[in-house]
Write a structure and sequence with these properties.
The mean pLDDT is 89. The protein is an alpha+beta fold. A four-stranded mixed beta sheet has the order 1-2-4-3, sandwiched between helices. The chain contains three helices and four strands; from the N terminus they run H-E-H-E-H-E-E. Strand 3 and strand 4 form a beta hairpin.
């Protein structure tokens, strides 16, 4: 992903509300599966890490990205933004070249 594409996705994510909240149980298989399904439907999602979660949001973002074959767009504080390009018919976001 280029810097220009990442900046474009950050701009789109700025107005989004978090789709998931990760709490004290951290990343469970159920959370991973739900994130995978949301990425398939939306391509770009935001995840909120709650205060009662002791894990580092950057590490959680990398782990989620690996498990869902997605890319970490950004981690700001306790907010994680993930992107996974959709299949042909589900592609909604056109990235700049």
């Amino acid at each position: 992903m280029t810097t220009k594409q990442r900046a474009y996705l950050k701009g789109l994510a700025m107005t989004m509300d978090p789709v998931f909240q990760v709490g004290k149980n951290s990343i469970t298989p159920e959370v991973t599966e739900a994130v995978r399904e949301a990425l398939a439907a939306r391509e770009l999602i935001k995840v909120a890490v709650l205060k009662n979660c002791a894990d580092d949001p950057k590490e959680m973002a990398q782990l989620l990205a690996e498990r869902t074959q997605s890319q970490v767009v950004q981690v700001i504080g306790k907010k994680i933004v993930l992107y996974k390009e959709g299949k042909d018919k589900n592609r909604r976001i056109e990235l700049p070249k």
